[in-house]
Amino acid sequence: AAVKSGQSNAAAIEAAVKSGMTLDAAVQAAKSNYEEILPRMVEWCHRSGIQPADLDRLRPIHVAGTKGKGSTSAFVSSILTQYLPSPSQPNPLFNKIGLYTSPHLRFVRERIRINNEPISEELFAKYFFETWDQLDASARALGEPTGKTAKPSYFSFLTLMAFHTYMREEVDTAIIECGIGGEYDSTNIIVNPSATGITSLGIDHVQLLGRTIEEIAWHKAGIMKPSVPAYTVPQLPAAHAVLKARAEEKQSQISVIHKNPLLDDIKLGLSAPFQYTNASLAIMLASAYLQTLPNPPTIDPLVELPPEFIRGLEG
């Protein structure tokens, strides 16, 4: 029951309307609350024993977008897990790869994966209550009430718990999918990602992000960080113009990734035609991440895909 105690934005709007607030006022309140998430998330991190800079240890790959961000994140995870110890990998680079996505289809543990598998019920319970109890302890130390009032919203709590899980489990990297938007998303407490990716943009979450593609692109581009490579797929001209301007503002450099011609001979594990766009972006994100390693493998993803990439994309 505890995991369900936080309110989503939609649930908060519905509850406000039921309490007598007009719909417009409820939406405006939700938007104001959304735009205040990041400073609150920093505070929740401190209370849970995490400093935002601690997340650098996860060497995160951060992914935002409207369509395809979950698939792209999954492709990146699948590629990188091919570098784990196995009979087909005599020279492993990693031991654990984290993947945080939303929403879940069957059970909440699907959101927090290690080596492409949802964490076990035992691990979920362990890290859930470590996070929950630490927030209660911090509230008591400050003379504040415990319980639901001492916790962030549902998504923010799960994000906090995912970071705690990945740090305790000592994952080598974590692929982190944004929830809503990017600029004000709970996941955007990441300070120094290894790479950022923005998938295809469209109109979504208009109550929080705005009703135009330009407004939505502005939010999604919020995950870019100084001196960190950013990648996107072909966008509408208006969206691309915003992404380019935001990259300059954030001292990042954004590259547009077109479909990789080497994928013509590969049957993707996710087979819809549009997945080739997501796979092409995932290839560049994985390549960029691997180049940050102390002894990076030699990869030119436009000339030849390593067998690990092919296995990961087909898996």
Summarize the structure in words:
With 315 residues, the protein is of the alpha/beta class. The chain is built from eleven helices and eight strands. It has an eight-stranded mixed beta sheet with strand order 4-3-2-5-1-6-7-8, with helices on both faces. Strand 3 and strand 4 form a beta hairpin. Helix 1 packs antiparallel against helix 2 (23-35) and helix 4 packs across helix 11 (307-314). The chain is globular, with a radius of gyration of 20 Å.
Secondary structure: elements and pairs:
Blueprint: H1 9-18, H2 23-35, H3 37-48, E1 61-64, H4 69-80, E2 97-100, E3 112-114, E4 117-118, H5 121-141, H6 154-168, E5 173-177, E6 195-198, H7 206-209, H8 213-220, E7 229-232, H9 237-249, E8 253-256, H10 275-290, H11 307-314
Helix pairs in contact: 1-2, 4-10, 4-11, 5-6, 8-9
Provide mean pLDDT, rounded.
90
How do the SSEs run, as a string of H and E? HHHEHEEEHHEEHHEHEHH
Please give the alpha-carbon distance between the first and last residues: 35 Å
- The total of beta strands comes to 8
Sheet with most strands: 8 strands, mixed
Based on CA inertia axes, which overall geometry fits?
Answer: globular
Given the helix and strand composition, which structural class is it?
A: alpha/beta
Radius of gyration (CA) equals: 20 Å
Helix content: 40-55%
Spatial strand arrangement across the major sheet: 4-3-2-5-1-6-7-8
Binned strand content? 5-15%
Oligomer: single chain
Number of helices: 11
**Low-confidence blocks of residues:** none
